[in-house]
């Protein structure tokens, strides 16, 4: 499914990115483009709140600063380092990934979404997140926050879940991508941030939303 870029999309992109420059949080994984470090943050954030990841992320990276350090560690140590974060399947996969990448790719991740998805624990979203947040490529990364924002903004009458809606949201996120990779990085961070801080699952704070004017759900009547 494809979606066409429209003037409305350009305005959405502009407002959102400008807001992110003013209001976006300064998070440690936003200061790096190291694919390994971005990957660790993405894996941690999958099922854990930002406040908790802020505590664990530097500790884990101090212990395993590179893919090679992680690949060389034993299973038990790696599991210990993850203690407190839960959902241990994540670290099992991350450890397998590190070993595989050391063995087959000389320790480096490549900017190829299809190849990234072949790695243990890397799904469509994580591959997209690596493409944009580590490699600064214009690539969509639709997690639950992004999906919620897109649905409320563009498709308020769509059903809340379903494969068809998913495809539509990914196609919309693709059409929204700025051409420039660095701008795409900011835009993709911005839409995630909006879903985390303003257009949340619990409440849509439309009165302070930077894209309210064009939003199909929140615009002033
Ligand atoms: S206006 Fe409201 S519903 Fe629309 S994106 Fe903003 S917070 Fe979400």
Explain the layout of strands and helices.
Blueprint: H1 7-23, H2 35-45, H3 50-63, H4 67-72, H5 75-82, H6 89-105, H7 113-116, H8 124-134, H9 144-154, H10 163-176, H11 181-197
Helix pairs in contact: 1-11, 2-3, 2-8, 9-11
This protein binds iron/sulfur cluster.
Structural account:
- Helix 1 crosses helix 11 and helix 9 crosses helix 11.
- It is built from 11 helices and no strands.
- The protein has 2 domains: 96 residues, Endonuclease Iii, domain 2 (Orthogonal Bundle); 101 residues, Hypothetical protein, domain 2 (Endonuclease III, domain 1, Orthogonal Bundle).
- It is an all-alpha fold and 221 residues long.
- Bound molecules: iron/sulfur cluster (SF4).
Kindly name the structural category. mainly alpha
Bound ligands: iron/sulfur cluster
Q: Say what the CATH topology of the largest domain is.
A: Endonuclease III, domain 1
The Rg value, from CA coordinates, equals 18 Å
Shape type: globular
**Strand percent estimate:** under 5%
